[in-house]
Design goal:
Blueprint (H helix, E strand, L loop, with lengths): L1 H25 L4 H30 L6 H29 L4 E2 L7 H16 L8 E2 L2 H22 L2 H15 L11
Antiparallel strand pairs: 1-2
Length: 186
């Protein structure tokens, strides 16, 4: 139950990112206010992801928990981080066209969105190929926030390796009962 509620909250973060895109598309606010809103939302989002990951760690500490639900939660959480920062990069590019280098200007909106999802995934995975990179401070702040989220997420997952192994072994024992061979006594 907790996982569903937490994932719903994470989806709300995505919706706010799309709202920034709509505000930019309709030109409701000035460039300054759109940029301020984007960066504020990114910082709040990063804080929420950190809080949520620490909360999950505390909730599972010293308790038996379902391995698959735990990994699924972190997998979905990581995917939402990549998606939400991809939206943020795209919105930043729409606000300031020179904010990123090597984005093809002749592509349509879908092509640009895919490029920023690719950039977000490369950033989150720390691959950072260098083909796309931020040229303005706001872009560097977003990249820094995404990298910090990656590091915190990985630390929290790795800090639960022992309980995860125990959970997996308990799950394996209940799924695959051990068959003992009968031996004859001499």
């Amino acid at each position: 139950m907790f996982y569903r509620k937490a994932l719903w909250r994470l989806m709300m973060v995505i919706i706010f990112g799309i709202l920034i895109f709509v505000i930019d598309d309709r030109e409701v606010a000035s460039r300054f206010w759109k940029l301020l809103l984007l960066l504020t939302l990114a910082v709040v989002k990063a804080g929420y992801f950190v809080w949520l990951n620490i909360y999950i760690l505390r909730a599972t500490a010293g308790r038996h928990f379902d391995f698959l639900k735990y990994l699924l939660f972190f997998g979905v959480s990581a995917s939402l981080i990549v998606l939400s920062f991809g939206i943020d990069y795209f919105c930043l590019y729409r606000i300031e066209a020179n904010s990123f280098a090597n984005i093809p200007s002749d592509t349509n909106l879908l092509g640009q969105a895919v490029a920023f999802l690719y950039f977000s995934l490369a950033t989150f995975s720390t691959a950072g190929f260098g083909d796309i990179y931020p040229q303005v401070s706001a872009g560097r702040v977003l990249v820094g926030l995404e990298l910090v989220l990656f590091l915190i997420t990985m630390v929290l997952i790795l800090s639960n390796i022992h309980p995860l192994r125990e959970s997996l072994s308990i799950r394996k024992a209940t799924v695959e009962p051990v068959v003992k061979k009968k031996t004859k006594h001499l």
